[in-house]
Amino acid sequence: MSEAQYYETRDLWSESRFQLDQERRRFAAAASLLPVSVTNLLDVGAGNGAFLRYLEDEGKALHLLGLERARTAIDMKVCHADMQAGSADALPFNDRAFDIVSALEVIEHLPYGVYEQSLRELERVAGHYILISVPYREPRRRVICPYCGCQFHPYYHMRRFDDAVMPRLFETFELVRRLEVGVEEYVVMPVVRAARGLLRRRVYPSSAICPQCGYTQADSAAPAVTPPPASSAKRLARLIPRYTRRNWIITLYQRRTG
Ligand SMILES: [Zn+2]
To answer: Ligand 1 is a single-atom ion; what residues have CB below 5 A from it?
Structure first.
């Protein structure tokens, strides 16, 4: 049960994580795709309700509800809207119960079988629209468990989303709008990332939980993060040109008519 255990990690749901610039820009992009006609929204896999809180702060005139499986996330909720316990593959709602159903940074985490069933459930309870946000063309990553040698994605991302996949997520909904959200980084980063790819296999993130044996460094006294670079290195780094890497894609789907 490591996968479910992983999402109970308190660190995943801390309010500060969702104040990061890239998170705010992702929320803003998602909010910008909300059609003006919608009056209620269900956020599936709402986590600590950070997106709902964003909509509340923006003063959107919408009735909001969150659904989340991880008990820890609900306990740490940051929104005023109600949060209900539940799983994306068995939504406890009637057909077409909501004008729009959102699932932001959720479906990349869903295991085989659960993923397919969850997409059908989103389609079932969404009246008119579905809003999805996923990592865009994310490279497949693997870390090796230092305890048992098992290889796995450190954040439990189960699949890769690109332009071939996104229009085909739903049978009864069609993709009507899309936005890409990027992060600014140094132009040398793709090379650095490729070089680090091999090394990364040995670096086991502090939040990782091995799906095979359950090993996690969160239990040990090992340092959680690498120290920040010295200020002289930071000054040097500022001289390197930057570019925007498109990390996420946000898509809006509308129910097909007829
Ligand atoms: Zn292991």
So the answer is: 145, 147-148, 150, 210, 212-213, 215
Domains of the chain: 2-255 (3.40.50.150)
What confidence tens digit (pLDDT) does each residue in 106-162 have? 999 999 999 999 999 999 999 999 999 999 998 888 888 989 999 998 888 989 999
Region for residue 156 given its phi and psi (left: phi exceeds 0; alpha: psi -120 to 50; beta: otherwise): left
Give the dihedral sign, CA 138/107/72/99: positive
Q: Using CB atoms within 10 A of its CB, is residue 159 exposed (0-12), middle (13-18) or buried (19+)?
A: middle
Alpha carbon 233 to its chain centroid, in Å, reads: 31
Between the CA of 152 and the centroid of ligand 1 the distance, in Å, is 9
